[in-house]
Amino acid sequence: MAGRRTAFLRRHDVERLLQLAKGELEHLLEGGEDFPRGSREHLGQLDRALGKEAHWRWDGGSVYVWAASSSRFRERGAKLLDPALETRAVAPGTWIGFQPTSQGPATDWETDLGVVRILHTTRRGAASAMAEELAEDAGSQGVITVCALYCDIGFSGPALIAADTAQPPLEYEAQWGLVTRLVGHPLPWWPSELRRSDVISQWTPGVTVTIAEVLPDERESTLRKAASFWWPDDAAQTALTDLANSLRNQRISSLNSEIRIFGEHGAHPHGDPLFIAARHRTEGYPLPRTSDRDVLAAGWRTIASSQLFEAYEPLEIGMYCDPSLLPFGPHTEVSARGPATRRWAQQLAPCAPTALHAVLADDAQDVTFYTDPATGIPVVRKGSSRQGAWVFLAPLRLPDRDAQLRSVILEDTVWIQTADGRIYPGPCTPGDHLWWGPGGGDQPTETALVISQLLDDPGAEVSLADRWSQAPRSLTKLLNQSHRYGTELPRAALEYARAQQDNNV
């Protein structure tokens, strides 16, 4: 199973696991018992130069699973994969109780095999880590196997990854239905948003369903805290609250989908339905949203232009969730060494940093802040040498309707040179980017359509809706070719390409 942690065993590890005498492993490898295939370790160039030997190794989990299916090695294999468990009579188990553990909330069950601990987490490696911790603890209450959830559905219920305390590193897939049979009680399952100690600890056998609240995550908490600060207008608070409500509603929607999917498909086809032990409260949901995007956009403009420290984190969240609410295009980074970039940099004006500048700067140390007076876009210079970079948000339109496009320069991004001698980053819509060259099956329809729109109206706000059908085919073909760094395509060449009819594009 892809979700289990892989532990590799060398020859002596396999021999110790299966308690083999010298030479017995060779007999297993040569025999017809479907023993897992091994492989030689990969050695780096330095190790090979030092004469190190590439040892054979085996996937420990696969060997452990194989042992459980072998009549000879069954007692040394995976505890929950013993074929006898499917047919032998087992006495009903008993619930021991809730356990807060280092790997997350857990419930312990006494069974015929010993204590089985179920970890209610999908953290990778949790079963192995818990089993190792218990193996080192003399007071581990007799736990023989730890089962952790894997975010999928198995044959008989939610998928489980198991690790035995006898062999903690060797994880394997276990069946929900078998564990249910061992404990003699429908196993409770909690959806991911409610998989918390304060919820799981409330459950005992006989309890039906717990109603619990979905707690705010870090992003929602950041937005609500920011909304409580003073802002120069109400639109900023409205924008922050709206996004916080949107994130909560999305999580509730995902929770409902998870419950529906596991409720419909998360049980044995011929067994009892999955016991879903908790649901969220429905009163007051979905949380209210603001439908006026003009108000939201005004609020995010206020936050973006703010110099308050409290504006940085919520703006970063807002730009990730819905960049279209800001009056700028996509995040763009260009090398400071390019001739077109150096020309454009002369048009920039130094400024005091805003929250938007801080988001663009990220965690860079040597930065200076600018704005493009013509387009209003924020710009950050990272590094002061020619090896530095300029980071900015592309404009949505060019500033002058009367300045015709004179040429396009292909240098890190698409640069537009106008008839008045000025140069600008090519305008682009959020979520898209301008590119050129062979696309490995893709075509630069974004760039072709933007150039076509600027040839007709240099001051129009560009639109990339339906670019696949609207982008001129021959112009797309021109841009789909390889071009040298800094190639300049004059207006005449662009208009000629656009005018061509090429049915083979």
Polypeptide structure, described:
The chain is built from 17 helices and 22 strands. 32% of the residues lie in helices and 22% in strands. With 505 residues, the protein is of the alpha+beta class. The strands form six sheets. A six-stranded mixed sheet has the order 4-5-6-7-8-9. Strands 14-18-17-16-15 form a five-stranded antiparallel sheet, covered by helices on one side. A four-stranded antiparallel sheet has the order 21-20-19-22, sandwiched between helices. The chain has helices at residues 11-18, 24-30, 45-49, 60-69, 126-135, 176-183, 197-200, 218-227, 234-265, 293-305, 312-321, 339-345, 355-361, 445-456, 467-470, 473-479, 491-499, and strands at residues 8-10, 39-40, 56-59, 94-101, 104-111, 114-119, 143-153, 158-164, 167-174, 188-189, 210-212, 275-276, 278-280, 331-335, 349-350, 367-371, 378-382, 389-393, 405-411, 413-418, 423-425, 487-490. The chain is globular. A hairpin with a 4-residue loop joins strand 7 (143-153) and strand 8 (158-164).
Strand-helix topology:
Blueprint: E1 8-10, H1 11-18, H2 24-30, E2 39-40, H3 45-49, E3 56-59, H4 60-69, E4 94-101, E5 104-111, E6 114-119, H5 126-135, E7 143-153, E8 158-164, E9 167-174, H6 176-183, E10 188-189, H7 197-200, E11 210-212, H8 218-227, H9 234-265, E12 275-276, E13 278-280, H10 293-305, H11 312-321, E14 331-335, H12 339-345, E15 349-350, H13 355-361, E16 367-371, E17 378-382, E18 389-393, E19 405-411, E20 413-418, E21 423-425, H14 445-456, H15 467-470, H16 473-479, E22 487-490, H17 491-499
Parallel strand pairs: 6-7, 10-12, 11-13
Antiparallel strand pairs: 1-3, 2-3, 4-5, 5-6, 7-8, 8-9, 14-18, 15-16, 16-17, 17-18, 19-20, 19-22, 20-21
